[in-house]
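Hey, resending since the last one bounced:
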Amino acid sequence: MFSNPYLLEVGKKYNKSASQVALRFLVQSGIVTLVKSSTPEHMKENIDIFDFVLSEEEMKTMEDMDEGVNFFMEHDNPEHMYNFFGNYGFISTDK
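The structure tokens again:
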């Protein structure tokens, strides 16, 4: 995803990475995002998305890129959600 040519093109326009463009898209769409970062550099990069605004055309193009596939988690799969939240201690995994 972060090597997507369109995200890279938009990133170049704003002097941002493809991941920053993707994160900005989510935030600008009103989607709450939880990002994971283990280095100070990535933490700074993740927060450094509020000095640009994607155009309506850019937003529309990115919306149209949605293929209905989630690369991170199957939100509609109860077993997957149970395992995810159990791994992070939000729920007991004792059966």
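Helices lie at 5-14, 18-28, 40-47, 56-64, 78-87.

Sorry for the duplicate.
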